[in-house]
Amino acid sequence: MNSTNIELDITKAASSKIDQVDFDNLQFGKVNADHMMYCDYKDGEWQTPKIVPYGPMEFEPSAKVFHYGQAVFEGMKAFKDENDEVWLFRPDQNFERINKSSKRMAIPEFPKDYFFESLKTLLELDKDWVKKGEGNSLYLRPFVIATENGVSASESDEYRFMIITCPAQAYYNKPIKVIFAQEYSRAADGGVGYAKAAGNYGAQFYPTKLAKAKGLDQIIWTDASSHEYLEEAGTMNIFFRVGDKLLTAPTNDRILDGVTRKSIIQLAKDNGVEVVVEKVSVKEIVNAAKKGELKEIFGAGTAATVVRVDGFEYDGTYHDLPTINEPYGTFFKKALQDIQYNRVEDPHGWTMKAF
Amino acid sequence: MNSTNIELDITKAASSKIDQVDFDNLQFGKVNADHMMYCDYKDGEWQTPKIVPYGPMEFEPSAKVFHYGQAVFEGMKAFKDENDEVWLFRPDQNFERINKSSKRMAIPEFPKDYFFESLKTLLELDKDWVKKGEGNSLYLRPFVIATENGVSASESDEYRFMIITCPAQAYYNKPIKVIFAQEYSRAADGGVGYAKAAGNYGAQFYPTKLAKAKGLDQIIWTDASSHEYLEEAGTMNIFFRVGDKLLTAPTNDRILDGVTRKSIIQLAKDNGVEVVVEKVSVKEIVNAAKKGELKEIFGAGTAATVVRVDGFEYDGTYHDLPTINEPYGTFFKKALQDIQYNRVEDPHGWTMKAF
Questions:
Q1: Judged by CB atoms within 8 Å, which residues 10-69 of B form the interface with A?
Q2: Cβ <8 Å between B197 and A187
Q3: Of the candidates A134, A77, A156, which has an alpha carbon nearest to the alpha carbon of residue A343?
Q4: Is residue A348 in a domain?
Q5: How far is CA A70 from CA A158, B90, B259, B272, in A?
Q6: Which residues, other chains included, contact A102 with Cβ-Cβ below 8 Å and sequence gap of 6+?
Q7: Residue pLDDT, tens place only, B326-343
Q8: Containing domain of residue A152, as a range?
Q9: Chain-wide mean pLDDT for chain A?
Q10: By the CB < 8 Å criterion, does B179 face chain A?
């Protein structure tokens, strides 16, 4: 990344916790690297970003984030290549999206130079936490929370932007089973579904818990009005392969504009795979499954990269997906990871050296 | 309230802050009484509730509430009568509703005896913070937040239930202007609109900010699918008086089942006012306004009690509401407050002596 004139306020950890971590048995999101960034918004502006040792912070119980869910986040990953260089994947997309999310949630936008300088500094300080090897990464979690004290339901006038980081292995290590939503919904037209707003996630936990009780892992959400169109999974966008065509829903105000999703659409075009970005009807997919034409479903997201779906439940019937040779999912996962770990050329300029 | 066998863990404030508070100039939700309650859920159960001096608490930045909005709340008020007795208004309704909200948000339900014993203890300790006089109350804010550390998008296995309290005057002291939603939405069918989930509120701040920029105070939300039916305002249910009939939308999975709303419906029946609890169409209301048959709109909620709407914008046109004699809104506000302040008989057993 280019250097800027931003001066961060840096307090280094007295010692590293890295030796206490078993990197072969990481639970996603549970372990934090040594440092974090926080930056407060007050008196109408973002103050100097601070890098400090990761640890608890004090908040008043009346802070608005606890009551009104005025909070947004992002998910990104840093990858280490064979030469120990650390890379980010399309961080400009995450930066743009967190501000898009913030705007919808009435949170002030964050300055670009603060964002990139903070990432750079954190990754340089904690570079040993970024492990080499397939599936390994340092997961980066930028987020913004409303910190004004006071339980009145209006937007906060104080915020905290933070970046915390967690060493990660692959998010899902086996294929998942899903259910197509018929009762519950994730987002309304005119709502906040397209934003990475905190409340979008908490609202999915209960329906997902019901799905898990039936032995299913995730829900593929459908449109709230008719439940006739497949939209996205809770933490991933979703692709369907019917014959040799790859189908995925267009983004709209209910669907998150995923970075992995748009990268796969581009990679499909690069590799001569026909991609159809149109509303995907439940009927069409169920019929394709019945006729044996539905060859694959896979999810795509930063945490998961690409995850194979091996079957779906709809209307009380479970449909197994076939095991096929050379699945698109595997192909795109490898193509993405080759770029992310700097193992191949990067024709679209997606990667950025971290420091 | 009945006494129970619950032992709370109580740490009293060394001294009271009450003398520092200007009770004639309170900003809603900004000042907290001396004590608060918190109760942690871990290892599968709610621990002993603790009463402690109000103040900041430590949270890890990876606590799930900051990332996934897994949080719910309630709003209640305690009133002081002329004999210095402190009363709660239908607290059973708030207790039931917070557990209903919790269930939808995959949060474990809170025990009834913990809830009531905590309220009783807090109100007894901080009884001087409940001021006599019209519009004065101690606002009570029970809430639950997900406190497990770890940025993976699934329900927390640790929670904190809290009650904080704020001395309050009337929430809105003047009539408000509203806009009927045509673009943005509050809740989806199959979503969490009926729950007091934190994210429902944060999601309204941006559209409300746009409304405020046009000189309007609040949005009356319509159904997300068609925007043809009027549902609720952000922090209130909503009533329309057409001729002498009182109309309000039935509750559904998008609309909060308000305690003030259901109390007004009962009071209307008690007083021979015809109440129609049916879908209220935008067309019907706009036509009634044009014909001069729309006599009143008012909002009803715990924070606001009853607030008069003096006009609404729809489709770019602002419709003024007439000033009428003996408005229903004023009548119901007085009828409610007479019960809340223990000035009249309470035929439905709505009030409960706090301690």
A1: 27-30, 32, 36, 38, 54-62, 64-69
A2: no
A3: A134
A4: no
A5: 11, 29, 25, 42
A6: A72, A108, A109, A110, A144
A7: 999 999 999 999 999 999
A8: 9-169
A9: 96
A10: no
Picking from B38, B141, B206, the nearest residue to A106 by CB comes out as B206
pLDDT digits 0-9 by tens, A217-253: 999 999 999 999 999 998 899 999 999 999 999 999 9
User: Is the Cβ–Cβ distance between B191 and A185 less than 8 Å?
Assistant: yes
**B118 token code pair:** 């905590």
| SS3 state at B160 | strand
Both tokens of B174, joined, read: 């003047």
CB-CB neighbours of B147 under 10 Å: 21
Give mean pLDDT, residues A126-146: 97
Residues A126 and A142 in one domain: yes
Q: Is B173 on the interface with A (CB under 8 A)?
A: no
For chain A positions 204-223, those within 8 Å of chain B (CB to CB) are 204-206, 208-209
Q: How far is A54 from chain B (nearest CA, A)?
A: 8
Q: Which of B35, B192, B229, B252 to mutate to test the interface with A (most CBs of A within 10 A)?
A: B192
Contact call for residues B339 and B351 (beta carbons, < 8 A): yes
Is the CB of residue A81 less than 8 Å from the CB of residue A196?
no
Considering only CA atoms, which of B99, B100, B79, B74 is closest in space to residue B89? B79
Q: Are residues B256 and B109 in the same domain?
A: no
pLDDT at A3 over 60: no
CB contact under 8 A, A103 and B151: no
Q: Do B154 and A202 touch (CB under 8 A)?
A: no
> Is residue B1 domain-resident?
no
Helix (H/G/I), strand (E/B), else coil: A288: helix
Collect all residues of chain A within an 8 Å Cβ-Cβ radius of residue B67.
71, 73, 141, 143, 198, 201
Q: Give per-residue pLDDT as tens, B72-88.
A: 999 999 999 999 999 99
Q: Is residue B354 part of a domain?
A: no
Which one of A32, A191, A198 has the shortest CB-CB distance to B68? Answer: A198
- Which contacts (CB < 8 Å, 24+ apart) does range A227-232 have? A227/A180, A227/A181, A227/A182, A227/A185, A227/A282, A228/A281, A228/A282, A228/A283, A229/A279, A229/A280, A229/A281, A229/A282, A230/A180, A230/A280, A230/A281, A230/A282, A230/A285, A231/A186, A231/A187, A231/A255, A232/A186, A232/A256, A232/A258
Say whether both A261 and A127 belong to one domain. Answer: no
**A6 band by pLDDT with thresholds 50, 70 and 90:** confident
One domain for residues B303 and B217:
yes
Interface of B with A in 87-126 (CB under 8 A): 103-106
Q: Which of A169, A186, A215 corresponds to the end of one domain?
A: A169
Residues A54 and A186 in one domain: no
Mutate to test the interface with B, among A36, A118, A152 (most CBs of B within 10 A): A152
